[in-house]
């Protein structure tokens, strides 16, 4: 039963995780890094080949701009993967200094909206069902712009994008507490994202990036609440120690990841309706193994969450048995699920140890020899 559910898991890797990345202080170039979106897909296909549960890849536009998106999608399929969410980018253009869809100048707002609509065209061409929107919009100084009017401008743009969505397509709105704006951020929290999505309709949902909260925020509560309202669209998984660190998911706080996965399962969100996506950068560690490790971390947290004895938990909760209920949860968390996952992989023809199997495969040596001058992911430039 637990194995059947694990077999159905699907974790999406981001194209930008395979490119060079860094902080605003330095981008460290690595060997064998992809030179174009086609090569990023080849690397993502390796992650899927060794884990068996990463069959789609998110694109970021314009970082992944190509002449023909239909051709890129065909290339993906030929490698055994598909195109996942299309991520818009209205944060890396001089015009967006004061915002994109909330900019005071209508010409800039129009440009930003046109980009978002172009992303829906790309969904049509690639067969992607998900548009992921994150806005860097906000202000740095009190009085700089009208907070309320910016919300009106945001709502206007979201409505236009929503109207453009086709059958089977949806938009996910991502929030983030701060950065790059330091005073007001126009979509700073789940409540703001939720309110906009509620007005838009069923095809609009909130995406929770686990790195986008204030320290101490109870993310599993947000997950439980959004699921209850039918408004949890997915995750951008990563780890944070300080701010939006984009480290490997499950590295900083595997217990938090377990608690989140438990609420997903408890709330009926373990299925295709909630997208499990990674949003990470591997600045100092190798990228493909970094993604494999991340996928495995999510899988381990999921396995532990699936092992929670829900009947025993409910009984302890009904009886007000505080310690008993806590123990049920901790028993599952403290289970070593690695043997179970090794077995599961072996049953599906995979190597039980994806990290070692990838290291032995010779793929890294091949790309390191073939690819010279890998492209920057576009992030942290
Ligand atoms: C913003 C964000 C968003 C972007 C990505 C590169 O911090 O999380 O999802 O698209 O980083
Ligand atoms: Mn994100
Ligand atoms: Mn982020």
From TrEMBL:
InterPro entries: L-rhamnose_isomerase, Rhamnose_iso-rel, Xyl_isomerase-like_sf. Its EC number is 5.3.1.14. One of its GO terms (molecular function) is L-rhamnose isomerase activity. It is an enzyme of class 5 (isomerase). Keywords: Isomerase, Manganese, Metal-binding. This is L-rhamnose isomerase. It comes from Nonomuraea mangrovi. The gene is rhaI.
């Amino acid at each position: 039963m637990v194995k059947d559910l694990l077999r159905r898991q699907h974790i999406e890797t981001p194209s930008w995780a395979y490119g060079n990345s860094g902080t605003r202080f330095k981008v460290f170039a690595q060997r064998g890094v992809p030179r174009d979106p086609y090569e990023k897909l080849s690397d993502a296909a390796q992650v899927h080949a060794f884990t068996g549960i990463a069959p789609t890849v998110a694109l970021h536009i314009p970082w992944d701009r190509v002449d023909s998106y239909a051709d890129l999608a065909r290339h993906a399929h030929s490698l055994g993967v598909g195109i996942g969410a299309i991520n818009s980018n209205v944060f890396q253009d001089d015009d967006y200094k004061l915002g994109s869809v909330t900019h005071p100048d209508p010409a800039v707002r129009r440009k930003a909206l046109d980009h978002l609509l172009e992303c829906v065209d790309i969904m049509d061409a690639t067969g992607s069902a998900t548009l992921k929107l994150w806005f860097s919009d906000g202000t740095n100084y009190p009085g700089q712009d009208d907070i309320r009017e910016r919300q009106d401008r945001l709502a206007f743009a979201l409505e236009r994008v929503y109207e453009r969505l086709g059958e089977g397509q949806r938009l996910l709105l991502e929030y983030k507490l701060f950065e790059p704006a330091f005073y007001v951020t126009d979509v700073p929290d789940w409540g703001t994202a939720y309110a906009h999505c509620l007005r838009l309709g069923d095809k609009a949902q909130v995406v929770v990036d686990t790195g986008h909260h204030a320290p101490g925020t109870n993310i599993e509560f947000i997950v439980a609440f959004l699921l209850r309202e039918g408004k949890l669209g997915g995750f951008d998984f990563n780890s944070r120690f300080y701010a939006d660190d984009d480290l490997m998911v499950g590295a900083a706080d595997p217990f938090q990841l377990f608690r989140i996965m438990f609420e997903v399962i408890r709330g009926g969100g373990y299925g295709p309706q909630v997208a499990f996506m990674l949003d990470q950068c591997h600045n100092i560690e190798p990228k493909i193994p970094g993604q494999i490790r991340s996928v495995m971390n999510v899988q381990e947290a999921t396995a532990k969450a699936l092992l929670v004895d829900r009947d025993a938990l409910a009984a302890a909760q009904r009886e007000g048995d505080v310690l008993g209920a806590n123990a049920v949860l901790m028993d599952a968390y403290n289970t070593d699920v690695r043997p179970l996952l090794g077995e599961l992989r072996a049953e599906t023809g995979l190597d039980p140890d994806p990290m070692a199997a990838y290291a032995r495969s010779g793929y890294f040596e091949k790309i390191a020899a073939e690819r010279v001058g890998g492209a920057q992911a576009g992030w942290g430039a």
